[in-house]
Amino acid sequence: MLDTANSQPTGIMVAIKTIFFTLASVIAVNADWRVSYTYADGGQITTHGFVNSGCVNFIKVDSNIVTVYFEDSINADTLELYLEADCRELAYTAGAGSSNVPDRIYRSYKVY
Fold first, then answer.
1. Which of 38, 67, 70 is nearest to 53 (CA)?
2. Cα gap 109→93, rounded to integer Å
3. Across all residues in the chain, what is the average pLDDT?
């Protein structure tokens, strides 16, 4: 809608656009989950996504994972670590935050 006298958006439209962009920004910032994995050999890998990860096989399986830091999101709040590839043999479940996990080689994970 335009104010025909000034050919500019009305105050209501400006307010609606401001609210919309603010909400979109908040959702975009909070929709991303991240997990940092720290390995016994000093290595670190970070994964991230916007929706459930499904089953993901780790590329690095030559050292034990000793800690994980999981930043959850509005779409995902649970991390699972599996001893076997293809998400077989669930070994550890975590929520948001930093966790000392059992010092083992994990071959796959899920975030949901």
1. 70
2. 10
3. 85
C-alpha 80/C-alpha 110 separation (Å) is 5
Reading the block at residue 81, the tokens are 């670590």
Strand 88-94 versus strand 56-57 pairing type: unpaired
To the question of pTM greater than 0.85 for the whole model, the response is: no
pLDDT per residue over 76-98, tens digit each?
999 999 999 999 999 999 999 99
**90 Cα distance to chain centroid:** 20
Bridge partners, 80 (sequence order): 93, 110
CB 41 within 8 A of CB 105: no
H or E segment and range at residue 29: helix 11-30
Residue 25 vs residues 19, 34, 38, 49, 79: alpha-carbon distances, Å: 10, 18, 30, 17, 25
